[in-house]
Amino acid sequence: MKHLHTLKSHTDTLAQNVFSLEGRLALITGGGSGIGLEIARCMAQAGARVIITGRREAVLQEAVAGLGESVDYVVNDITDLASTDDLVEQIELAHGPLDIVVNNAGINMKKPALEVTDEEFNRIIHTNLNSVFSLTRACAKRMVKRQHGVILMISSMAAYYGIDRVVAYAASKSAVEGMVKVLASEFSADGVRVNAIAPGFIETEMSRTAMNNDPERRDRAMRRTPMGKFGQPEDIGHAAVFLASDAARYITGASLPVDGGNSIGF
């Protein structure tokens, strides 16, 4: 029995360690609030050191104060592509090599397609796609050289099926899904995994406001979600920890729906 107990303890330790992010450094864009904040919290709880970025310093400071000593912040606007390489260099000089990058920052706009201007469309594409590629490229250059790294994209149900009045957002997230496949094909042999998480309807302050302003849309979303409830930001955080950990070491080029079944609901 003693041998069985020892074996079980060893197995438990292995199971715990494979999900650990101990010793890893993660960069999370838009990490000061909403889903990004919960990804930061979950990764810090899993043992990672975390750097969050965003445009609003006060929000980042408040986030760091609540997350603990293993989390730091850098004020940065991801849409300023000229500053991207400097951002990554600054972070690595100050904190060491990045192991994980989470492209979380993004914007949305709800408007009938016929009313969307070129300027509005381009603004969303620039923020959600061009900026994501720019940061990913800057980080991947270093990760590929080191033969180690994890890149996570935040996708959306809008990339899975046609949601009305979000044409620019859906286009940007569909493009991110395509980018995941290509980058995984190019980087995986060099030890860099690339995956996406596609959140369903997650309850954040921003989404609550949007849904309450559009109850018909809220009810429709709930009807086609088999679990019959909205997700919580930490549901995305836990999925991000899994995909960043060694437990997912053979997963690349995938898009993981964290949606209570919404993407397959009827």
Strand order, sheet with most strands:
3-2-1-4-5-6-7
What Rg, in angstroms, do the CA atoms define? 19 Å
Query: Could you state the order of secondary-structure elements as H and E?
Result: HEHEHEHEHEHEHHHE
Largest sheet: 7 strands, parallel
Q: From the coordinates shown, what is the CATH architecture of the domain at 94-261?
A: 3-Layer(aba) Sandwich
CATH class of the domain at 94-261: Alpha Beta
Unreliable residue stretches: none
- Which class best fits the helix and strand makeup? alpha/beta
Q: What is the H level of CATH, i.e. the homologous superfamily of the domain at 94-261?
A: NAD(P)-binding Rossmann-like Domain
**Number of DSSP strands?**
7
Helix content: 40-55%
The mean pLDDT is: 94
Write the CATH fold name of the domain at 94-261: Rossmann fold
Describe this structure in words.
By secondary structure, this protein is α/β, with parallel strands linked by helices. The chain has a domain at 94-261: Rossmann fold (3-Layer(aba) Sandwich). 49% of the residues lie in helices and 14% in strands. The protein contains nine helices and seven strands. The protein has a seven-stranded parallel sheet, with helices on both faces. Helix 3 links the parallel strand 2 (49-54) and strand 3 (71-75). The model has no long low-confidence stretch (mean pLDDT 94). Belongs to the short-chain dehydrogenases/reductases (SDR) family. Residues 24-200 form the Ketoreductase domain. InterPro entries: KR_dom (IPR057326), NAD(P)-bd_dom_sf (IPR036291), Sc_DH/Rdtase_CS (IPR020904), SDR_fam (IPR002347). It holds the Pfam family adh_short_C2. This is SDR family oxidoreductase.
